[in-house]
Task: structure prediction
Amino acid sequence: MTMKRMMMTMLAAVLVSTSVMAQDEKTEKREPRKFDKTEMVKHRTNETVSKYKLSDKQAKQLLELNTKYADKMGPR
Result:
């Protein structure tokens, strides 16, 4: 009787772990949100401005630089 119970427990554990793995694969397949270049430049500029508390003049200069080098920026 104990051998049968042990086998049923092992089978239940395998089934549960398989279903958990299948759910993880579904959540990973979501496509990342795609930004166009101008959105990306504005987003990165705004993040940097707020993080370092830049002045309006510095923010404007940073936006110009980020726009100039947008093609060379990689994903974060």
Q: What stands out?
A: The CA atoms of residues 6 and 12 lie 10 Å apart. The chain has a mean pLDDT of 81.
